Amino acid sequence: MLWLLFSLVTATHAELCQPGGENAFKVRLSIKTALGEKAYAWDVNEEYLFKAMVAFSMRKIPHRETTEISHVLLCNVTQRVSFWFVVTDSSKNHTLPAAEVQSAIRMNRNRINNVFFLNDQTLEFLKIPTTLAPPLDPSVPIWIIIFGVTFSIVIVAITLLILSGMWQRRRKNKEMSEAVDDDDKCENFTIENGIPCDPLDMKGGRINDAFMTEDERLTPL
Amino acid sequence: MEKARPQWSNPLQFVFACISYAVGLGNVWRFPYLCQMYGGGSFLVPYLIMLIVEGMPLLYLELAVGQHMRQGSIGAWRTISPYLSGVGVASVVVSFFLCMYYNIINAWAFWYLFHSFQDPLPWSVCPLNSNRTGYEEECEAASSTQYFWYRKTLNISPSIQESGAVQWEQALCLILAWLTVYLCILRGTASTGKVMYFTALLPYCVLIIYLGRGLTLHGATNGLMYMFTPKMEQLANPKTWINAATQIFFSLGLGMGSLIAFASYNEPSNNCQKHAIIVSLINSATSIFASIVTFSIYGFKATLNYESCLNKVILLLTNSFDLEDGFLTASNLEQVKGYLASAYPSKYSEVFPLIKNCSLESELDTAVQGTGLAFIVYSEAIKNMEVSQLWSVLYFFMLLMLGIGSMLGNTAAILTPLTDSKVISRHLPKEVLSGLVCLINCAVGMLFTMEAGNYWFDIFNDYTATLSLLLIVLVETIAVCYVYGLRRFESDLKAKTGRTLSWYWKGLWAGVSPLLIVSLFFFYLSDYILMGTLQYQAWDASQGRLVTKDYPPYALAVIGLLVASSTMCIPLMALGAFIMRHLRKGDATPVA
Where are the transmembrane segments (chain A) (predicted)? Predict the structure, then answer.
């Protein structure tokens, strides 16, 4: 009698959890790819942990707070490691709708990944799309800041160069105009060799090196 | 009192200016491509032969002309013969077109440089689509680096007919690029000379750092071995020799007037023969050096792609046949495939079409040149390196230095004849003149910031300088050797520099080089004629790859105009000079 009941229960369970069954999801793990040498073996205890995480996720959904670990059924575990799972209701006769399971898994995906040291690519729930992390969007794009800095530096440098060029030119013009004034003064005098001929007017005078200086005229004693 | 001609502070500045001008982006993005396409290590043979036979003599000729005449290109050629001032004008026109489109590359380099300060690099991840369930389709179809180049940087339109609007980000970068160039040329040779130290030396520092990093990358040796294994049969292919000759020719920047302009600021007694040899050798050495770096990067990228292709196949088989994770590796892949084909034939035949054939050679074979190499392939390799921000900043800063160095030469080619002309320099100081030139070029350059801008850039890049420069240099060589007279030129040089011209240079100038240029000219013409209608590569956003399209008639008209406007200067100015002489003779005869 008991044996009949047991087989009936397992048969029902077997029917509920089937590859491709209604409300069933396939899970695929790539533990060796993710962890390399630190990979752990997938055994019954890991399956228990998985069931616990799924039950935990289902409990976060309104009206499903009483989900137990025994409500989560796993089947068809392969070497890959991959398997199918379903979540049944308290009567263990019906499976919970796929939409609810999907939203539960999506909300807690990060925690499930972390428990197994895996990520979205190595712990795959087929048919449950991952929510991708939104990109960081600073209010002012970084490139504009750097552009602004470079732009201002270049503008300041150009302004400095132009201004210094103008000052230099103004100073040269002033010198030229002074030389022109001296030329005007010399109009009544002769200009020899391009040198204005009134050295007494200019500051410092003009030393003609062709003549010896005072000191050298007298030979030393 | 005559204002003295500005001069370089020392001969080293002149050498650095020539190096900075000649070593440009072509050394980095064209030479490695040619090396790969035309026989790897064996391409160096025609390259070096062409350097000795064509590059050095023509470079020496231009430097000698500029140094001897002490004027920019227009004045120099007018002195050689009044009928040949058209050569100078043609050089200025070509330089003007070059200035217009070349600076957009610097704008792109600035754009990438500013974006290198982010973590992660913006071209390493695809952006999410609108409902956050996956990545953008265009990014999935292409790759994230291609997406960043074609969509985020260029925002390219599907064809040249759809011009689209001016991209304000690119416009800003272009304005910044022109302001930087203006800053460098503002004070003439005084300021340009100092900038040249920087723009000439910095790219070498970065290349050396990259060489160190590149050689230690995983898979770099694959690329280097592939590139340097000589394929001797390519030596028999005439295209190899033609491409070697063209590369030497355009890489040195002959015929644009920049070299004449630089040499005109030299002391008349300067030994430009030594400098010509040094500059051409350094230019070629840089090309080879840059291709070593490029090929180690290629090898790294190809190995990475090959391994990821293999991993995809492994994952596919593991998932389809529920094999144990980690069981399939690259080494046992083939035998396991054989086993699966025999054990599960029906399932295997389902999966078989999806299995890609991964091959390292086909990854290495993808030869890329131009902006595709610089901005897509390199940035893809950089995103996979550790501390990728640092490598990215270094690389794009180097591109910027190379580009600005060449721009300084291009602007010198335009400004030197303008400042030489007494009419213009009396009314406008040189700061205002440089500013005007930069402003006009910047305004026209906005064309290249539009959505179809990259297609126009390709037009300018492919057609402005090719035929025109060949013709210009041909006329230059003939002018110096036969119109001015080789003996007269030789005696002029001997008087100024005290050095006799060896028979080697004379033979090359008078005979070999003109023949080579004529043959290159005919090759180009026949190539254009045989190709029929001209085509271009357009980006297809839905497929995520380039497709070939025909140019519309108005684009062909622009191409024709580009080539004609520079080449026609030579005969037109000659005709003009002839007519003026005739009129003057007509006026003179009654007086006599």
Answer: 142-167
